[in-house]
Amino acid sequence: MVKIGIIGATGYVGAELLRLLLSHPKVEVAALSSVSFVGQEISNVYKNFLNKTDLICESADEVVKKCDVIFTALPHGLSEDIAKKAIDNKKICIDMGADFRLSSEDEYEEWYGKKFTQPALHSKSVYGLPELNKEKIKQCSLIANPGCFPTTIELGLMPLLKNSLIKLDNIICDSKSGTTGAGRGLTINTHFPEENETFAPYKVGAHRHTPEIEETLSTMANDKVNVTFTPHLLPINRGILSTIYCSPKNKVNLEEIHKLYLDFYKDEPFVNILPLGEIASIKNVRLTNDCFISLHLNHRQDQIIVVSTIDNMIKGAAGQAIQNMNIILGFNETDGLNLIAPAF
Amino acid sequence: MVKIGIIGATGYVGAELLRLLLSHPKVEVAALSSVSFVGQEISNVYKNFLNKTDLICESADEVVKKCDVIFTALPHGLSEDIAKKAIDNKKICIDMGADFRLSSEDEYEEWYGKKFTQPALHSKSVYGLPELNKEKIKQCSLIANPGCFPTTIELGLMPLLKNSLIKLDNIICDSKSGTTGAGRGLTINTHFPEENETFAPYKVGAHRHTPEIEETLSTMANDKVNVTFTPHLLPINRGILSTIYCSPKNKVNLEEIHKLYLDFYKDEPFVNILPLGEIASIKNVRLTNDCFISLHLNHRQDQIIVVSTIDNMIKGAAGQAIQNMNIILGFNETDGLNLIAPAF
Amino acid sequence: MVKIGIIGATGYVGAELLRLLLSHPKVEVAALSSVSFVGQEISNVYKNFLNKTDLICESADEVVKKCDVIFTALPHGLSEDIAKKAIDNKKICIDMGADFRLSSEDEYEEWYGKKFTQPALHSKSVYGLPELNKEKIKQCSLIANPGCFPTTIELGLMPLLKNSLIKLDNIICDSKSGTTGAGRGLTINTHFPEENETFAPYKVGAHRHTPEIEETLSTMANDKVNVTFTPHLLPINRGILSTIYCSPKNKVNLEEIHKLYLDFYKDEPFVNILPLGEIASIKNVRLTNDCFISLHLNHRQDQIIVVSTIDNMIKGAAGQAIQNMNIILGFNETDGLNLIAPAF
Amino acid sequence: MVKIGIIGATGYVGAELLRLLLSHPKVEVAALSSVSFVGQEISNVYKNFLNKTDLICESADEVVKKCDVIFTALPHGLSEDIAKKAIDNKKICIDMGADFRLSSEDEYEEWYGKKFTQPALHSKSVYGLPELNKEKIKQCSLIANPGCFPTTIELGLMPLLKNSLIKLDNIICDSKSGTTGAGRGLTINTHFPEENETFAPYKVGAHRHTPEIEETLSTMANDKVNVTFTPHLLPINRGILSTIYCSPKNKVNLEEIHKLYLDFYKDEPFVNILPLGEIASIKNVRLTNDCFISLHLNHRQDQIIVVSTIDNMIKGAAGQAIQNMNIILGFNETDGLNLIAPAF
């Protein structure tokens, strides 16, 4: 069995990855690391693992040494050196943080306030949105797993952009995320009595996923795309839903666009285009690796509205990382990811 | 004391109006009506009224006869005839439904599927957004109390539109509402296990508040305004937050716009403009008649983002109706509405 | 592959059973029935099944004819005749309703207001709590799958009762359930704005699970057990937690009781006894077939407090039914039920 | 106007007290203190106070100097010295913490791990449950405002205990509280994704409210009362509901007990006894100073079940403190507390 290591296993993304990989038929999780909990069983940190695994948190170095595939689930700026070590040792590295998502170091510095620590490594990495880059991913050992918000927006717009159907100068992306997206760190905004029964945007006009979205959409369009991206925090645990507004270049027929989407994604196991008239909802995708998309026009029929939704912890993080691993290792793309959303 | 009647007192808007009016210092609720609960105490229907009032539901006719001010909280199409009777009898009528909100009967027929039953009455009604129409409201006996979504959007955009600062051809209004907006009627979408832990838009491109928004914004702009309006359902009880995207005609300075808003609303007791850098949140306004507005630019500084939030049951319905009543009766505009949001 | 049929597939229990069985490695769901949705795809009723199954709702008769194992997920009083037909045709029938749970027809009539329609069949049925009746279940074709509340209480008390350690005359069972326990039927109590942000007991002193609990506990104790059982409704979707208060016959040593529980359940794959000092929580078991139990004393050390928690839809319904099926068919008891609770 | 000071105004109890007092017709909040936010406007800490008050946090000493009535909302152990200073200066002091709730210093030391710092002061304090001690409160300048859980249990049992109707050796109090009870301090248990959609007890058999409950119930019974008290944390913001199980000394007639309760509380403005057959619910009391009580028997009619519910922040803290102030100052007991629960 392929030996898997998770670096940063006690954060939310790491813990979700562990949960999913423990049910994967073709791999074995061989080692975990955590800065804060070295020497402790993961089931001490998350009781849901009691009697499911007795893995103990080790150092990152141990994990790299023991494993064939290394997943890094770390705050930005901490993955590059680990990735270097992994790649130098002929391992596969899938980074679930932001370190390899932007190709431009200038852009990275502008939004993240620091330079690349391993600039040479970046050219070897591939942006791990399988529906966009599957062939490149197959050949690659270093994956930049996409951000959660960008995944919804990129999958939602790809058929329109690849077919040059919409204007590129101001696409509005109004996105809403559950609170797991904010991670395990305690903040007043995620203190239960403060977040429950309320709703608000955050980082308006300034969220770090903006350059990732613009770079990837520009690649799809083969031209510069500008977006206005506003994230909001929902008082639920899981799920992202993006409502995307774009202007068609020419008069639009919604049936044709719908057919285009169905055709575009017909071989993609995780992208589901809803029938016209239905509306995508977070509950369609919760606890799955699926992306559900529904298509709409405004009342004057001159504006396309794309609704795109995923589970932020799965297709937006851990599940997409496993999908990338499956592609690299030649497994079925859906291995370990055959998940059906609970209806309630 | 002025005698108040509520027609449709057992719906959510009617019940909220009753709760607020029971604490109003200058009026007395004298009669209630309900189609489904005639003869029953309102405290049988809503236990929160136990030992607070012993009012009993009567017929609508009784209410009109007994009272000086009639509030109608009814599904569309049912208020016109009652309003006729009230006005003919020199009473004041404040309609919290949709019957008098649109000035064009054609537009009304297109969106609501029926014609006006009292067309002559419509010219006597005023759209009851006090921040827009205060002087007209003072002179009027028949008020069309605004819809909840329109209130957020109209207050959010009025200073920009009155000053001709933005383009009018496609304003994006991405709005999110708590579930009380859907009322007391049982539906699968508001069944707890179906609505909890999820989020989705509804009536995309087709919500009946669209023509109301467009008519009022056009009045403000003195020119035709087009909007794309998408409502979403939040898994919370109360509150609407609208994220509004608009394009300035010329290069924008956010400080100047902020000053404009502060100045524009400086005499309005219920509109609060947040300091630049802060973001409006539903919890700022829950259980109050306030509207909180925050102002933002996107990262390229070429798109204005207005965040506007109210309590849908109060400023979006019952509270605004009381505000209109206060204005008509010459009371302090804030009488009965001096509410402070619970912090949690 | 064994052919499975679900009668009542569009209710919450039926739908959850379908979701779990679609991932079971050794069976095939061959047919579904529903009174309200005959002829419709199940994915029309529950969108989470879109692209996961194209099964269509048929009549109950068709299901019995086509399948080897019949699961009935029906309101009480409707399963007996179907079970008769299944058993007569040498099929296996697992009833997830209440029809076969009580051995006494008088007791059944007292609590459910009707008599048995197939009284002869009842002697052939076994109460399907595997931790109590595993050997009997292996030999049986007709299973009375336990109620959700009873499962928590029975698993929580079995080691104490089998070892005659507690008094039997008044055990207090204070139980709290998520709203899925109320099913898919619309009621004002489960209307989102009415149930959100509140909490209350229901059917105090009068819930129909009471005689089931008392009968099973009496079997365990080999003596008459009396309980006071109070169910409460939690504003969450899934999970039941019962806080159970009982008086030891003699002075208690908590460490010894804890060892007793660990030993009693050491071969049971789904019952987890938490270390002393930890407290069972619904999040330990959500979306799994597990039961977590923690053990405590009050501050004077003279009262045992057992906290027992399950997912009401899985160990409390669909999952336990599959566990029973696995036992009857000679599969691994955990087949299709190797589920790890999401940590968040 | 009477000048009010709040010491510890930035905690949840202090902030709620401020919110309520700003609407009180006969007092003026003159000063606030906070250790962490000295020099800052309270509206910086809680945006709900924006444009409602411009009070600035000062030192505790300043507050005592400026005000006539001092409310202390502090962690245990910090109020005694402040109370001393207030009393020495002929001020009124209402302590919302635990410092003066227990009469026995030994008991205090056992549960809180420290001794009294002002032991002489304790004999001057009165336990501020108005329904029990109204006459004493009128004469007193130092109030120990009751804990939130104890308030529900003491009001729920007082008529039974005062009339010697129940056994005293083991009353079971199964209590459930919203998360505001845990305060503003960040913990992993109140991190939104950890607390949402779950439910569990905490501090089983060991909560510090236990001795307060036992002391007060013993006073009522004029004999030693023992309780088993288990608090649970509900995924809601506000409200406590206690389900209380007690054994009658003799055969019980529920109608008689109900009449007894109605009569016992007939002059108490905040205690509401529901009609027989109805069940108290947190939504009856949210955002009010009310306590709702419903009465039940188990199915064998040999165990009384009392359901008692309050808003933990109001009748369980800030509202009850105002009620005590009203009594001491000779105001109407309901001044500033005429609150009606929102129905949704």
TrEMBL record, chains A, B, C, D:
InterPro entries (alphabetical): AGPR (IPR050085), AGPR_AS (IPR023013), AGPR_dimerisation_dom (IPR058924), AGPR_type-1 (IPR000706), NAD(P)-bd_dom_sf (IPR036291), Semialdehyde_DH_NAD-bd (IPR000534)
Keywords linked to the UniProt accession: Amino-acid biosynthesis, Arginine biosynthesis, Cytoplasm, NADP, Oxidoreductase
EC numbers for this chain: 1.2.1.38
Pathway: Amino-acid biosynthesis; L-arginine biosynthesis; N(2)-acetyl-L-ornithine from L-glutamate: step 3/4
Domain Semialdehyde dehydrogenase NAD-binding: 3-140
Compartments reported by the entry: Cytoplasm
Annotated catalysed reactions: N-acetyl-L-glutamate 5-semialdehyde + phosphate + NADP(+) = N-acetyl-L-glutamyl 5-phosphate + NADPH + H(+)
Top-level division of the source organism's lineage: Bacteria
Residue positions of the active site: C148
Gene3D superfamilies: Dihydrodipicolinate Reductase, domain 2 (3.30.360.10), NAD(P)-binding Rossmann-like Domain (3.40.50.720)
Entry-linked SUPFAM superfamilies: Glyceraldehyde-3-phosphate dehydrogenase-like, C-terminal domain, NAD(P)-binding Rossmann-fold domains
Keyword Cell division included in the entry's annotation: no
Record flagged with keyword Coiled coil: no
Major location (coarse): cytoplasm
PANTHER family: N-ACETYL-GAMMA-GLUTAMYL-PHOSPHATE REDUCTASE, CHLOROPLASTIC-RELATED, N-ACETYL-GAMMA-GLUTAMYL-PHOSPHATE REDUCTASE, CHLOROPLASTIC-RELATED-RELATED
Physiological role: Catalyzes the NADPH-dependent reduction of N-acetyl-5-glutamyl phosphate to yield N-acetyl-L-glutamate 5-semialdehyde.
Stated family: Belongs to the NAGSA dehydrogenase family. Type 1 subfamily.
Protein name: N-acetyl-gamma-glutamyl-phosphate reductase
Species in which this protein is naturally found: Clostridium gelidum
